[in-house]
């Protein structure tokens, strides 16, 4: 096989736990049909892979009882020639979710995997098949990106086929999917019906766990389980690896560390307690590499010689939301993460460096009378959170970090912004592009005002026809990128609910 059996088995052993199970061979793996066996472990939330690189990946699933994750992996498209790997034993402590890191993969290779769970008697339950491809030197790279799932009370509407923007993304056959934050809306109850401003009625599939704001760990977990009821989401996740970020709504709207709530919907007022529960659910339900044993969300995912993706965490290390007029520095990334971003981007040998930012840089995003995002809405020198971004941009220029593109979501409309020091109040940086996508299944808003500190210019934007427009209005947006392995061209487009291209730009590498 085109697999390093030693490394793969080492990964499997490292993830193991103490549940006695009999040995199995590749032949017995091949004999296991993809059906549900009664009274055996089921797969109620599908399967997924994530953080795929040239030689590694993470696979994920969830079952309904204590059992061991089993993965059959093949690079031949035939499960009768698969390697069987055993992962961790699930329990109620992790909501019966399990992840298995795969190492020693070959670059430029398609892999098929089959996931199931074995009970304590060694009986395999329901199985499901998925696939992913590792990046190769002379292969094109394509991916989709967006954010904002199940927000503003817009959940799974069976009348329109569920979360159909996920189907449109799937149809582009991307190599991976970058979710730029707000994977769930833990603070937004989902009801059976919702009256829309245009007089229509939106209908939802509902569960008990999404009927109120999430406070308990079970309620946060329930939000991820809810999204995975949608067949469009499950189908995409089985075929397309995920790179996941988080923003505010995985916990609650506009939160920051140390905040004490005044919202009467919450019995637990300490945001740090809620964020801890939200973080555990996020890490349980999304397949991702846990760096050096730390549950750190910011990380680099190297997708071959053409692309490195730098996933930021603009939520965990921020200071309290400041007033617009605050002139001194206010943390957004935090010193450690900002230094990491500069150091890793400067060391990157990839042609393109995508900075996956869960919030936009130049758009004004208010939080009442305070500032939620980076921009403070004031022309002139950097203030508040703009200080950190100014430092990062200046360091990129000083260290000759070329070919950066910032991708983001958060504001619930799509836009393309070009930043240039010739238009800016702060000029110590090189020009770059910021592409905004989303929502993928939530209310549409916008457009927001632009702050002139870093000299942004709107090259394209498409927003809602009215505030909190439902997905059925068609104004749901995702981005698509394709990188040519020969010319190095980075072609980015913005697309609507049905995959229609609204705007396209080809960027040439320097």
TrEMBL record:
Classification via Gene3D superfamilies: PhoD-like phosphatase, Purple acid phosphatase-like, N-terminal
The organism's place on the tree of life at top rank: Bacteria
Domain PhoD-like phosphatase metallophosphatase positions: 149-493
Keywords on record: Signal
Cleavable signal peptide: 1-26
Ligase listed as a keyword: no
CDD domains found in the cross-reference section: MPP_PhoD
Occurrences of domain Phospholipase D N-terminal (ranges): 46-127
PANTHER family in UniProt: PHOD-LIKE PHOSPHATASE METALLOPHOSPHATASE DOMAIN-CONTAINING PROTEIN, PHOSPHATASE, PUTATIVE (AFU_ORTHOLOGUE AFUA_6G08710)-RELATED
Protein name: Alkaline phosphatase
Source species of the chain: Kribbella qitaiheensis
């Amino acid at each position: 096989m085109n697999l390093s059996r030693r490394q793969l088995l080492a990964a499997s052993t490292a993830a193991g736990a103490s549940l006695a199970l009999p040995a199995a061979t590749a032949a017995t793996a091949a004999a296991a049909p993809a059906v549900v066996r009664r009274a055996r472990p089921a797969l109620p939330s599908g399967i997924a892979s994530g953080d795929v690189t040239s030689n590694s990946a993470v696979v994920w699933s969830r079952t309904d009882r204590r059992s061991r994750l089993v993965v059959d992996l093949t690079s031949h498209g035939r499960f009768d020639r698969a390697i069987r790997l055993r992962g961790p034993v699930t329990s109620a402590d992790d909501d019966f979710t399990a992840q298995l890191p795969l190492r020693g993969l070959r670059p430029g290779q398609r892999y098929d995997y089959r996931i199931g769970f074995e009970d304590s008697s060694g009986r395999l339950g329901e199985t499901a098949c998925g696939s992913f491809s590792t990046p190769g030197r002379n292969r094109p790279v394509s991916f989709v990106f967006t954010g904002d799932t199940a927000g503003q009370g817009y959940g799974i509407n069976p009348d329109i086929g569920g979360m159909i923007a996920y189907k449109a993304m799937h149809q582009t056959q991307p190599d991976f999917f970058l979710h730029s934050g707000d994977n769930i809306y833990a603070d937004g109850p989902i009801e059976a019906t919702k009256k829309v401003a245009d007089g229509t009625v939106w209908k939802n599939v509902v569960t008990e766990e999404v009927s109120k704001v999430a406070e308990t760990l079970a309620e946060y977990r329930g939000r991820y389980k809810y999204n995975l009821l949608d067949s469009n989401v499950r189908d995409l996740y089985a075929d397309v690896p995920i790179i996941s970020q988080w923003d505010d709504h995985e916990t609650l709207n506009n939160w920051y560390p140390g905040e004490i709530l005044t919202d009467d919907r919450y019995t637990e007022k300490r945001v740090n307690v809620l964020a801890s529960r939200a973080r555990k659910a996020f890490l349980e339900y999304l397949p991702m590499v846990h760096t050096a044993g730390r549950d750190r969300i910011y990380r680099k995912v190297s997708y071959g010689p053409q692309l490195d993706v730098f996933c930021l965490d603009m939520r965990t290390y921020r200071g309290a939301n400041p007033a617009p007029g605050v002139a001194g520095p206010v943390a957004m990334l935090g010193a450690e993460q900002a230094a990491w971003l500069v150091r890793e981007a400067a060391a990157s040998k990839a042609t393109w460096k995508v900075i996956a930012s869960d919030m936009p840089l130049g758009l004004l995003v208010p939080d009442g009378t305070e500032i939620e995002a980076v921009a403070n809405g004031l022309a002139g020198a950097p203030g508040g959170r703009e200080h950190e971004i100014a430092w990062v941009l200046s360091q990129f220029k000083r260290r000759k970090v070329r070919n950066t593109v910032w991708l983001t979501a958060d504001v619930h409309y799509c836009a393309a912004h070009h930043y240039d020091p010739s238009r800016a109040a702060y000029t110590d940086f090189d020009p770059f592009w910021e592409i905004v996508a989303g929502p993928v299944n939530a209310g549409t808003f916008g457009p927001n005002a632009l702050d002139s500190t870093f000299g942004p210019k709107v090259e394209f934007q498409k927003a809602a026809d009215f505030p909190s427009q439902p997905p059925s209005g068609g104004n749901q947006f995702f981005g698509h990128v394709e990188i040519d392995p020969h010319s190095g061209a980075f072609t980015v487009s913005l697309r609507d609910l049905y995959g229609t291209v609204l705007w396209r730009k080809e960027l040439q590498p320097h």
